[in-house]
Write a structure and sequence with these properties.
Elements lengths: L17 E5 L2 E7 L6 E9 L2 E5 L6 H13 L6 E5 L5 H4 L2 H8 L2 E3 L2 H9 L4 H12 L3 H9 L22 E4 L2 E8 L6 E6 L4 E5 L45 H13 L6 E4 L5 E2 L1 H22 L4 E2 H8 L6 H20 L3 E5 L5 E5 L2
Parallel strand pairs: 4-5, 5-6, 10-11
Antiparallel strand pairs: 1-2, 2-3, 3-4, 7-8, 8-9, 9-10, 11-12, 13-15, 14-15
Helix pairs in contact: 5-6, 7-8, 9-10
Length: 361
């Protein structure tokens, strides 16, 4: 029997407040206007400087907090580097703004950086195609097409970035941190792991209570003239063009769970949402079981041919907002594509171009 998770900090800091979680590592909460109302970012002592890990949403309230926090940091708040775990707006939002203000180098994975540069081209056509293929009602397609894209502060040219690679060692102060790429929630999500200190900065890759969405998104569909694998040979999803059923982020997600499970059991996990915890193995196991239950349910439903939209509705039967419906569809599609690659679901497109899934008898 695996142990339950342990939360070493009884209280979470209020938005804009810093809390020390280990010598030289501070936890800062920034507000989000969503179902979950915060993102955690971390400040690490880097010699005489500070390294910032993640930046929060591109919003006036977040910029105000940063201005205040930076002015209050010991050592004058000189920043050596800003590390961004992945390209989602609550993480990368203010990277460009912080760079402009502080002159600090920016670090993230190159794949995630490229998803940011690709995002605008042909997006509207992909959105419409995504929902039509899912078999969604017209009102959903309309909502999705009218939804404004989340924006991040403008990013500096490529030369301002020092890209991180899986397996790199990052020296922060006296400590060596291994760069560990997570897959699935985003294509090359940076986690930082310090062996000596048994600390994992996990970003969205491992959260104690929330299951991060592993999805195939509107932007992931191949556009006209785009191949399934992009120019740099990266197997694409999360902004690299691959059409269902060939995209398979869930495979990368499960492989990353295997890597995380191999970490020492007592590692302190610093997540991007909720609170720091110990219990990586129990959490990995719970997440894996969640996907197994979904596979079983999908295979059962697909004894009859099903559209992605109908499957999402069946998997998440409570009332969902349009945004939640997007998450549900993206996640359902990731699961059907995984089962398709496993040879357990058949995929076809009906006369109207809608994806239809059916269990292999
Ligand atoms: Zn994320």
């Amino acid at each position: 029997m695996l142990q339950a998770l342990v939360y070493p900090f009884a209280e979470s800091p209020a938005a804009g407040q810093r809390q020390v979680v280990a010598p030289g590592i501070e936890w800062l909460r920034l507000p989000l206007p969503f179902d979950f109302d915060h993102v955690n970012v971390y400040l690490l002592r880097d010699g005489a400087h500070w390294l910032l890990l993640d930046t929060g949403l591109n919003a006036a309230s977040t910029r105000d907090i940063w201005s205040r926090v930076l002015a209050s940091l010991p050592g004058g708040g000189a920043v050596s580097r800003v590390v961004v775990t992945h390209a989602h707006p609550d993480h990368v939002g203010l990277a460009g703004w912080l760079h402009e203000r502080l002159g600090a180098r920016l670090s993230m994975s190159e794949v995630e950086w490229r998803t940011l540069s690709r995002r605008d081209t042909g997006h509207a056509a992909r959105v419409a195609a995504y929902w039509r293929r899912a078999g969604a009602p017209a009102a959903m397609v309309e909502w999705a097409c009218a939804r404004p894209a989340a924006t991040h502060a403008p990013l500096p040219p490529r030369a301002a970035f020092a890209f991180l690679h899986d397996g790199d060692t990052l020296r922060i102060g006296d400590d060596a941190w291994q760069v560990l790429f997570g897959r699935g929630h985003s294509p090359a999500h940076v986690c930082l792991y310090c062996v000596e200190r048994a600390i994992l900065i996990a970003g969205d890759q491992l959260l104690p209570g929330i299951s991060p969405v592993v999805g195939i998104w509107e932007g992931d569909l191949a556009g006209p003239g785009e191949a399934g694998v992009d120019g740099a040979g990266v197997v694409g999803y999360g902004g690299c063009p691959v059409a269902a059923p060939d995209a398979d982020p869930l495979r990368g997600w499960l492989a990353t769970l295997d890597r995380l499970e191999a970490l020492p059991a007592d590692v302190l996990v610093l997540p991007a949402h909720e609170t720091p915890f110990v219990g990586v193995r129990a959490r990995v196991q719970a997440l894996r079981e969640r996907h197994q239950r979904k596979f079983a349910r999908l295979l059962d439903l697909c004894r009859e041919p099903q559209t992605t939209f109908a499957l999402a509705r069946a998997l998440y039967p409570r009332h969902l907002s349009e945004l939640q419906t997007l998450f549900a569809c993206a996640e359902t599609l990731a699961h059907t594509c995984f089962l398709h690659a496993e040879g357990r679901l058949q995929h076809a497109r009906d006369g109207a171009g809608v994806d239809v899934w059916r269990a292999v008898p």
